[in-house]
Description:
With 284 residues, the chain is an alpha+beta fold. The protein has one domain: Lipoprotein localisation LolA/LolB/LppX (outer membrane lipoprotein receptor (LolB), chain A). The chain is 21% helix and 36% strand. The chain contains five helices and 14 strands. It has a twelve-stranded mixed beta sheet, covered by helices on one side. A two-stranded antiparallel sheet has the order 10-11. The longest helix is centred in the first third of the chain and has 17 residues, at 2-18. It is globular and about 55 Å long.
Amino acid sequence: MKNIIKTGTILLIVMIILNPLSTKAQHSEVKRKIEKDMEKKYADPQRQKGKAELEKITYENDKRYKDPTNKVQATVSFEETDLDKKGKPKKTMVQKLVFGKTGECMVMNEGDKNETWMIYNYADKANYIVNVKDKTAMKMPLINMQKMAEASAKIDAEKNVDGNSSSSWKATGETQVINGYNCTKYVYTYSNNKHYATMDMWMTKDIKLDLGDNYMFGARLNTYKVSANAKHTEMGGGMIVRSILYDKKGNAVHQRDLKEFKKSADEQYFDMSKFKVKDIMDAL
């Protein structure tokens, strides 16, 4: 399993958080889903073991993070662009993934009025959803994040990389230097998607980033029960530098470009002292 994760780590990340079909999920939807899950599982007054179940997820009783540190610090930033019918940019957003010393932070809509941070802090044993403009944050236990992440990855994989024989990755043999990186082009053909036909994916092996021993979404990456899809392995791993999504008419509708990569992280993303924090556990 560890070797599979090492070769497919970046692809796993892409499926879960940097997929162009899923990055449009908004902060309010994520927040509502997590709140609903917490209330349904732990705050239902009809559950005979409600109090006992609630005790299992307190921060103090989460014993998993004896070593709450990420082995590798890194920052990966993508520029997401929605395109109009003529292929011209109509909306641009910046999404960032920061691997800090004690957690990771997903920055959605960086620099926008709706900028939101999703933080997984293993020292605090907590997940934070931060509204940057309002300087507010919601805090909740990390204890269920691994199962939620595995379920999310499985759903995305089934939606976007299905097992249908008519869907596949194809190596084109084309090469190009994009943003300073030597890239190879692959094309994915969708079989069961109502809106999209193909996706061009430009991959580079110039970037070396082994995150297998890092935490992500509540557990070490190399412990997850989700491996890279067999169709992905022919791509040989690597980092996606550019992806272009096409609709059924062959029009480019969305483009993602690697904007920044560095092997360091700004720890300000994990400092909650600047925000008014509301703990969801106080409401259960």
